[in-house]
Amino acid sequence: MPPRLGVDVHRRLIAPGALVASLLLAIPASAASWSPGAPGIGDPYYPAYGNGGYDVSHYDLRLTYQPATDRLEGTATLLARTTQDLSRLNLDFLLDVSEVRVNGAKASFTTSGEHELEVTPKSPLPAGTAVTVVVRYSGVPSTKTAYGFTSWHRTPDGGVGANEPEAAWWWFPSNDHPLDKATYDVSVAVPDGSQAISNGTLQSTSSRAGWTRYSWRSNKPQATYLATLAVGKFDVTTGTSESGIPIVNAYSKDLGDNYGAARASIERTGEVADWLAEYFGPFPFNALGGYVPNTNTGYALETQTRPFYSPRQFASGTNVSVVVHELAHQWYGDSVSVAGWKDIWINEGFARYAQWLWSEHEGEGTAQEIADYVYASRPAEDPFWTVRPGDPGPENQFHLAVYDRGALALQALRNEVGDEAFFAVLKGWPQRYAYGNATVGDFVRYAESVSGQPLAGLFDTWLYQASKPGVPAARAASIAPEARGASASAPVRPKSWKKIAATNSVHDH
């Protein structure tokens, strides 16, 4: 007679109470809920970027880099807290890992996908647990690619990690999405004669046996793509802005003909930051600067406190406008970061509009005149108008329309609510969401609360419609001369336009 399974189970269920209690005590209450953290944080533009199940509060990176061979060795210590009952966690990383420890115990690890490092701790981690993850690694960053590209730039005298929306994978393991911001200590040993440039303040330098170690600290939350590392031979200048912020700028010694223009532009960093503070409120960090390595890239990037500039930004002479753009990002993009990459207008529309305000400041064309020119110079059939800055899609994330049409939306807002409310919004927003994340929808609601006006229709027209706003909309927003009752004529190009257009390659990531 075959065993009667149902009867056996029933007998176990009616076992004496003491036995049942002992069995229950032997099983962890949350055992059934252990699960791996998601391999992506949930961003629809980049489903595999970032990770789920934990939140990082601090990165401690202790690195050694040899410029001659581009070899990087490091130990990364991540302080984090679990957000679920975690059986496994992922990190975004590309270099070769030799050991991982979780809370002091060796963890097993493997790789998957294009850039995933899967870490299985010796014991599962309950939700809310403080976690220390130590990763020992090495490799040659310039030999690593993901999705067919690299964000590590090899230079004649070293290397640079700087790109958007991803750069960290090539030099440190991370939860690579702006939603998980953290503070940083970055300590890098390089051969004497080379320097290591990173974010924040230089805490110390020390030399031993032919190597010099540079230790940098970022003491405010920083998105992973805003962390940067540059090793090379630089001329370094230091100073203090009028508002008291220490400045460190660095220029590669082999910039050639671009050296003078680069330095003449970036040495105005303190002046520009103080000027922007009049519009955006106090500078949100305790360090300022910029650096220009000898790369062949064309873009600039708002790496926190110390923007990265390509030499090509200065090929035609001084370019203070690009400095304005990248420093504006310190408020719009760095302190207040996107909640998802579809919110990129929060970064780029405002940084572009800062350039328009600088044009007003320099007497080379008002923001209104530039808005009129942008609107009038592009006919309705121009594909430019099909890009929706409020949600451009990953293929158009850095499209020119996100910048120019995005700034046009801000001029429409300014005309709708008036200067007093508009500039109150510009200054209040970075304080409302300081060191956090926000969406385009958050901005619309904030602008409505400050101005006391319903603005959803205006933003829908200028940010979300895949067509050129028609004459009625332009008239309502006082965009284009004829919309304000002036005679229609060929658009007049503002004096500053050539300088602003020269920064268009800033978004060619």
From TrEMBL:
Keyword Metal-binding: yes
Cofactor(s) in the UniProt record: Zn(2+)
Enzyme class: hydrolase
Keywords: Hydrolase, Metal-binding, Metalloprotease, Protease, Signal, Zinc
Catalytic activity: Release of an N-terminal amino acid, Xaa-|-Yaa- from a peptide, amide or arylamide. Xaa is preferably Ala, but may be most amino acids including Pro (slow action). When a terminal hydrophobic residue is followed by a prolyl residue, the two may be released as an intact Xaa-Pro dipeptide
Gene Ontology MF annotations: alanyl aminopeptidase activity; metallopeptidase activity; zinc ion binding
Signal peptide limits: 1-31
Protein name: Aminopeptidase N
Ranges for domain Aminopeptidase N-like N-terminal: 57-226
EC number: 3.4.11.2
